[in-house]
Amino acid sequence: MKKTVVFSYIFLLSLVFAGCAKPSMDAGNSSSESSSVQQNAEERTAQISFNNKSEEQDQEIETKTVTFKEGVSLMTIMKENFDLEENQGMITSIDGLAQDEKAGYYWTYTINDEMITTGADDTFLGNNDKVVFTYEKFE
Questions:
Q1: Contact (Cβ atoms closer than 8 angstroms) between residue 51 and residue 135
Q2: Is 84 in contact with 78 (CB distance < 8 Å)?
Q3: Mean pLDDT over residues 41-63, rounded?
Q4: I need a surface site. Which of 22, 59, 107, 131 has the fewest CB within 10 A?
Q5: Number of domains in the chain
Q6: Which CATH number is 95's domain given?
């Protein structure tokens, strides 16, 4: 009987020590794979298009797929990918086509077909968003 108790005690101790042991190298690899997937999840893409709807033209100017990190504003994405000018968080010129307040032409934009009324500094994109900037007349 004494041998059975000692054997049970040794068996329980070995289970405790095995549970506290350092993870194997295979478990470490899956951990690094998990962090790699997490880093890739922060990378996002969006499609940005420009339309000129002035009296002289009515055409799509350009469409570009951009890559960016989560949490980066639309203004930062635009500055990194296009030639633009801005004033107080609002984009006023894209690739040389500037707003014309006297004629009533302004840049507006939609995200996934929804009109956005905030400045690009305060706008953040989700993965696979479709942004369309339109140069058009407002009266």
A1: yes
A2: yes
A3: 86
A4: 22
A5: 1
A6: 2.170.130.30
